Amino acid sequence: MAASGESGASAGGGGSTEEAFMTFYSEVKQIEKRDSVLTSKNQIERLTRPGSSYFNLNPFEVLQIDPEVTDEEIKKRFRQLSILVHPDKNQDDAERAQKAFEAVDKAYKLLLDQEQKKRALDVIQAGKEYVEHTVKERKKQLKKEGKPTNVEEDDPELFKQAVYKQTMKLFAELEIKRKEREAKEMHERKVETGVWTVGEISRQTQREKRRRKIGPS
Q1: Model confidence over 70-106: pLDDT tens digits?
Q2: Could you say which DSSP state residue 155 is in?
Q3: b vs e for 33-51, b when ≥16 Cβ sit within 10 Å of the residue's Cβ?
Q4: What angle do CA 104, 107, 109 make, to 5 degrees?
């Protein structure tokens, strides 16, 4: 799936999306738990399976490292993963290995840029704060209703999952906005320079026709 399409669908919520997310999350975590020794096969699967471009927006998740790790640990992890998924070492699955390698390389380069790294850390912190606020408000409401104030996020693992999910949604929303900005800037450049393909001219003409049809007479 394309990053923007997946991101938009996932960020929008919905029952089926929630189920798909939890299935993906649980399967990934099972792989991580089962394989204490990293394998090329499982890393390629993790980084390229359906929905991966949505989850790969978080560079820390791609490299499977905590946000608090040092730059030296990031480099060490990159070397480890890049060797595992390198297409030259996985010629029986070279196409997916290439995609996995690109995801690892992109995440590493992003974290080398201190400004982009800070942005990623800010997104993760925002996700955590959102969940904490939501839990606090739910507990307050339960107390007001005279009910027990226990919520599922009291379980550390479920709290972690909630933060993980919210963080991914925030990364997705940022990616959607980035793509929208790029599309808008490209459109403005073409308008300024008058550079249009035949297909783009045709689509623009069709849009103008539709606007005239639904506009005031």
Answers
A1: 999 999 999 999 999 999 999 999 999 999 999 999 9
A2: S
A3: eeeeebebbbbbbbbbeeb
A4: 105
pLDDT tens digit string along 152-197? 999 999 998 899 889 989 998 888 888 888 888 887 777 767 665 6
Cβ-based neighbours of 71, under 8 Å, separated by 6 or more: 111, 112
Query: What tokens were used for 105?
Result: 């390389």
In contact, 176 and 7? CB cutoff 8 Å: yes
In the numeric block, the tokens 């490292």 are attached to 65
34 neighbors 46 (Cβ within 8 angstroms) = no
**Residue 58 one-letter amino acid:** N
Instruction: Tell me the pTM.
Output: 0.66
